[in-house]
Amino acid sequence: MDAFELMRTRRSTRKYKAAPLEDALLEKIIEAGRYAPSGSNSQSTHFIVIKDRTVRGELSRLVREQFSLWETKPGMYRAMAHAITASKSGDYTFHYNAPVLVVLANKKDYTNNLADCVLAAENMMLMANELDLGSCYINQLKWLGENDVINEYLISIGMKPDERVYVAVALGYADTEDGLPVREPLPRKGNPVTVV
């Protein structure tokens, strides 16, 4: 695919096959993230690659538990409201049961932490599209960024105490008939452009 087609056809995958992702494919995706731009070339994004199903399950349980303590509010971002409501019902898996979850953390006191992690995530999702794999940008761990329960668990699996999560990416084979991600672009209804 040429670069524009790769960007135009990247779509979020929210249903994955249980099949594990081959290490060679995962390594290409992680390397694509590592080559993303970073402020002053700091290269401080920490990629925590969670392949272990038990670890993903425990993280999901903790996220569900913590969101169930929150309340929805009028005008709240609808995805966040959904996370809270679904967590209260006990039926919520924030990473869509993808076989790999890559958590991107960075120094909490570094002013470019969010931008650097998001740039790396986009590189990874584009590479996943190139490799015929599904991916999805995951916000929920960022929303719980100062939650002690979540941070303690993430530290126990490798995040540094001075880091916070700014994004995560779900990866795997799309659970579609042909195993390929849906690539039909959605129409652009927003993102206005002003030329001066």
The radius of gyration over CA amounts to 17 Å
Shape: globular
**Average pLDDT metric:** 97
Strand content: 5-15%
The largest beta-sheet arranges its strands as 1-2-4-3
Unreliable spans are none
User: What's the number of structural domains?
Assistant: 1
Largest sheet: 4 strands, antiparallel
What is the CATH class name? Answer: Alpha Beta
Show the helix and strand layout.
Layout: H1 3-8, H2 23-34, E1 46-50, H3 53-67, H4 78-89, E2 100-107, H5 113-130, E3 134-138, H6 140-143, H7 148-156, E4 163-172
Antiparallel strand pairs: 1-2, 2-4, 3-4
Helix pairs in contact: 2-5, 3-4, 3-7
3D architecture notes:
The protein has one domain (3-172): NADH Oxidase. It has a four-stranded antiparallel β-sheet with strand order 1-2-4-3. The two termini are 32 Å apart. The protein is globular and about 45 Å long. With 196 residues, it is α+β, with helices and mostly antiparallel strands. The chain is built from seven helices and four strands; from the N terminus they run ααβααβαβααβ.
